[in-house]
Amino acid sequence: MKPLFNGRKVNLATLLTSLVSASVILTLLILTVSSYHSNKNSLATTYLSLNYSKAEKMSHSVDSLFISMRNHLETTVNFLEENEGMSDQEIHEQLDLLQTSSGYFNSLSWIDETGVIRAISPNSIGLKGEKIAAGPARDALDAEQPGLTVPYMGLSNRLIILMSQPIYSKDGAYRGMIGGTIFLQEQNVLNHLLGNDAVEQNGSYYYVVGPAGTLLFHPKSEKIGENVIGNPVVRQLTQGKDGKELITNTEGIPMLAAYSHVSEAGWGIVQQTPYSFAEDLLIDQFLQVLKNLLLPSLLLLLLSIFIARRLAAPFTHLGNLVNGLAEGKAVSQPLKDNLMKPHWNREADILTKSVAIAFEILERNNQELTHSALTDALTGLPNRRKLEEVLEGWSSQNRHFSLLILDIDHFKSINDTFGHQMGDQALKGLAETLQTLIRNTDYCFRYGGEEFILLLPDADRLAAYQVAEKIRKEVEQTLLVPGRIVTVSIGISEFPTQTESLEELFRLADTALYQSKDEGRNRITVSSSGNPS
């Protein structure tokens, strides 16, 4: 009779050794791959959220800018209407005054109802007496109402946008319009507002598009005037929508893009990060995890093989554990506790505790990755993601607190004069100074660039002002940059006394900060808007 099994047999020790080796390797592989995919989604979500916050902030800033520009035009028109008898030269002097004092417009002109340019500032443009023909400027004149044109080539052969404000005589007759222009491809108010740190070290950058998808601001100035309506997020912006998503831009590059609509001008701001940067960062983190796990994993594997040759019983338990992991089941706390329980057999006791140590190492590395995602790498302060977590928690509790937005004055000039390394040292020095001046219960975050956020729980605006003043004075007296006095401007708002909306709370503080900047910097502005209690 032919034997039932006549092949080569595998002895129990070899079989158990193979099973344990496979179990340990498979366990580590499953946990590592799961961690990789989890962190991949987390990184994408984090950068989309950060980009959306910045796009939204820029949108609010541009909105505020255009409201201020419109107010300046209205004030000038009101003055001219009240002083109807002014000569062309006197009107020119008023335009000169507005153009030099506000800094909002590259040029200002009075165009009468027939289309003739009666006065223009500065004189160097040389268009006085010219008559505008058909086009956006003529359309704005004929509309006889406030407006903002699409980008077009002006009489001076520049790519411009025109903000117009109609002017009337006292008897109601239309006298033309006062027009303020922004030269898109030259230095202008948008460059000053948006040009600082437009491109970050990680490749993130932002740009501005008009209502028809034309680039109005871009880090690469040669792209200004180009139509990018083919970009999916630009199409969303032209419909007045906000959002964030992974897209492929017009150059075929995958981007983590967030976009926000500027309601006052009908423009849109896009902040985006190359997806490749998130992938590279994830790979670096993944390799670091593997590096940290390599030696413990190797020791665990050798120990498991050693024990497997002497003991068979514990393998049943480990086999069930790996099967559960392969099926996607989480490692429960009771199972972890069971692994830590003393075993009557010495070898089995060592084996189970070794597996428990491996789980602790993996969990610790996951915690380190989570901490890294919530911390600013340069200053060590919590970042925007941590800020959002704290604000959401306090908002749900309806907790009383004040919010301070703090911005280093003329930070770009520090980078330009002393270099980005000194700029980074100044940021770190400021972070250390802030932490010494706040309470243990207060929070200090790096919001991005040279901007910091402070949250003061159970503090009203008066108490917040006192803290802010202490910070302002201390910073002014601290040598953050050798041979140069560094100052800060601060804006303050209060929750929920002024508003129960976090978005509105930020807007109020940001507007107050903008006022501090506008009034000369190195000062504090407490927001007086909102609903006082």
UniProtKB/TrEMBL annotation:
Organism: Planococcus liqunii
Keyword list, A-Z: Cell membrane, Membrane, Nucleotidyltransferase, Transferase, Transmembrane, Transmembrane helix
PANTHER family from the UniProt entry: DIGUANYLATE CYCLASE DGCM-RELATED, REGULATORY COMPONENTS OF SENSORY TRANSDUCTION SYSTEM
EC assignment: 2.7.7.65
Enzyme class (EC, first level): transferase
Listed name of the protein: Sensor domain-containing diguanylate cyclase
Domain GGDEF, chain residue ranges per copy: 399-529
InterPro entries recorded: dCache_1 (IPR033479), Diguanylate_Cyclase (IPR050469), GGDEF_dom (IPR000160), Nucleotide_cyclase (IPR029787), Rev_trsase/Diguanyl_cyclase (IPR043128), Sensor-like_sf (IPR029151)
Listed GO MF terms: diguanylate cyclase activity
Subcellular locations according to the entry: Cell membrane
